[in-house]
User: Fold these one by one.
Assistant:
Number 1:
Amino acid sequence: AMLLAGRGRAETGDLVPNSYEEITAYNNFYEFGTGKEDPTANAGAMSTEPWSIKVDGIVDKPGDYAFGELIEGLTIEERIYRFRCVEAWSMVVPWNGFELADLLAKVGVQSGAKYVAFETAVLPDVMPGVRRGVLDFPYVEGLRLDEAMHPLTLMATGIYGKPMPNQNGAPIRLVVPWKYGFKSIKSIVRITLTDKEPPTSWNKANAREYGFYSNVNPEVNHPRWSQASERPIGGGIFAKRIPTLMFNGYEEEVASLYEGMDLSKSF
Amino acid sequence: MIAQFINSTLRKVPAWPLYVLGAVPPAWLFYSGVTGGLGVDPVKEMEHQMGLWGLWLIIAGLCVTPLRRWGNINLMKFRRPIGILTFFYIAGHLLIWLVLDVQIPSQILADIIKRPYVTIGMGAFVLMIPLVVTSNNWSVRKLGAAKWQKLHKLTYLAAILGGLHFVWLVKGWQIEPMIYTAVIVGLVALRWIPKRKRVAVAA
């Protein structure tokens, strides 16, 4: 009950994180299989050292960066964010990471760039989901530049002060807390600054159901799941559903990004 | 020979213990759910497991006729308990969804109307109601064998809808639900293979 009360008062920043076990044993990472336990079971085979990230497009300093080189000099902090999956379950995760804006400043975004595109590693040898072709891999995601520059947008490298577990997207992943979880792309190998809205994986798979923005929005119906409420993970079998908050509770911080947009059309 | 052995062995086995055995998995699931043995999301796990059991049972039920026709194995007396158990597993699956998962009545109704996979799942469940109600000797006598058999062809539709429900509810095109559906469609299709007419061989 304490846990739920804590989550209910999310607006005050008074969030109670899920346990490390819950966060690392219940994942969607289709490269490793479609079951929630598949990533935990299979992702151990992925080697994240060395890890190289290509930065390209409309930037000052494009190139292939080693993971260590890319994050060097950036301040890692803890951010406790609500995490809302489009499947209508939710968690609270204490991420460790730095603001994407800092990384973008480091590589130098040139004028003319309007979007940031991301790409996940494709390692068929260790990724059974890739071999099965569940989605059109590599998994790709994208943000509008102002969304990417927003101070809430995080590049996460750890959870609970530990390095990012493979199943959660090691060594580095995106976290955009006001959007459905699938926007927070994992195990990133490429970051591209572009002037066109980049393709995104779930939108490619089913455009009717998944839009480019995919902001958490209890009022915009999804054909598969009602988004009005969510099941918090970790409350046992009799856990009560809780109402889903506009922009996952980050309305005050991010609503201005979408001023004048019809969010039922740009969903 | 194997078929004969199986048939003669099974002749000695009564069908009623199936009901007792059938109660074990749901009881175990519920116990595990309450005591934290079902992982991080016990509600989804219970819901999913009960749905899968329902599919396994419906597939088992659909195997009875082809096994008799092409394998000479007679499991006829187990077909009714298998069918009745299928109904109760799917009822359990539905109950978990209603009470533990969706919880909110207005949302339940919206889900049934607006979400096609829920609609067809509910459809399959509703189709099973007349089947379970008439799964007794009295009903067979009352309806007459021909009518009863015709009614129970609804099983095929319910089974196929059950498979589609699984295909539709997952994100993307996943292989597991498609295999279940293919197996169900295949088993139903076997019913339409015409029986070979016994032609008198010209001497």
Number 2:
Amino acid sequence: MSIQEKANEIVAEFALFDDWMDKYNYLIELGHSTPIIEEKYRNESYLINGCQSRVWISAEMVDGKMILKADSDAVITKGVVSLLIRVLSNEKPEDILGNELGFLDQIGLQEHLSPTRANGLRAMIQQIKLYAMASEARKK
Amino acid sequence: MNQKQIIDQFPILKQKINQFPFVYFDNAATSQKPQMVIDRLVNYYSNFNSNIHRGVHKLSQQATDAYEHARMSVQKFIHASSSKEIIFTKGTTDSINLLAFSLGETFILEGDEIIVSELEHHSNIVPWQMLCERKKAILRVIPVTDEGELRMDEFVKLLNKQTRLVAIGHVSNALGTVNPVKEIIDLAHKNNSLVLIDGAQAVAHLKVDVQQLDCDFYAFSSHKMYGPMGVGVLFGKKELLEQLHPYQGGGEMIESVSFEKTIYNSLPFKFEAGTPNVADVLGFEAAIEFIQNEGIENLAAFENEVLSYASSELEKIGRIKIVGKAQNKAGVLSFLIEGIHPYDAGTILDQLGIAVRTGNHCAEPIMKRLGIRGTIRASFAAYNTKDEVDRMVRAIHKTIEMFS
């Protein structure tokens, strides 16, 4: 499945929710089920800076594709980052860099995109794209 | 007195958030504004807007009179002995930075010591750290107890011949602790040290009398006491302010300028370079009038009732840990829900129409001291009610249910 197809799938899932409570319950569920990052990545180098919740994101290249893992000490944050991982993990760095991730707007998570929400989606996306960029740079 | 008459003066409180009646418990960050404050701003820009102090035309004179009248209202509000002791700034942070620079240039030498406490907001830490770096001075820190009270026994030990200044918050923004500032001021003065009180969290809740306190400097903001953002005050004793080096240079703060020698203006203008924020100063005066009309004791009585009700209702939930158990508290209730990250709780409470603050509240050192990364903070103003506390309690039950 392409990045876009995975994103469309998430949009379709969120369209089923009648209200905010269903949406947040789903994020909480995702937060509880996200694969936990290996202990070696739970340190300052993989931490996304911010003052609310802590988020760690790791990236490893396997057969030309980027495997992303993440963790957070807050459950909702973990649910949000798990959506990103689902869409972007196991993809080529060039594809990760080329996607605008418009689906986040469509599922009504704009509040997490506000620049004031430290540790919000914006910083997570930036970090993932940095990993992809670094990998691309190494290829050249 | 009828609290409804107070609530009705705040138009913003009539709205709904996510279909729920709006419960605003983030007053320590900024309080809402009564209609009379909003009207004063609109009236200024509709009828008086003009630059002050230099114009000979009618509007400029009216605006100047209004601005200086506001200064006198602030003077009376904090019981200063002269309006020359009232310097308008952008806010508490600006007031403290002004003082750190001017006091530093005038009085602080290598090896001098400045005392702050573990409870302080970053605004009453960082400017002093910067000064200490510039002047090779030393920052000393009063520790706190597990309850969030200052260790006065340790404070006394920190005072010595090198102590130039004690900079202490009147009320803690993170825990709500009311510090024994009168005792601190008296002890510091016996040691020939100056005292700044950061009153940002106090002015809306406590009656402040700078002459009775005998503090040398007192800093506070308009926007935490029902007034507009962008205005604050640095009170300083006249004989001290007169000695201090100016902070920023520019128009207004000078008596005469030539390339050979510039003569600075007299107080308070020496510290007010550039065009001031006239509209918001007038709005600030309206906020003072609001507090005086209602009576600060009456406003505080509503808040204290809500604070103690909220504390006991939260304790009943069971899974709640109240952070900061000082004997004397004002306006702030910090807490944690066992097993739930404050950010998660804050997000769900927001969805339920309840505005609280989560995080470290710009007071990382006290969080570190208590071994936590942050709290959920409900902070109250005179328009908050027990009914709103009940709604928060129900929302907390809902939150716990969602995360279990």
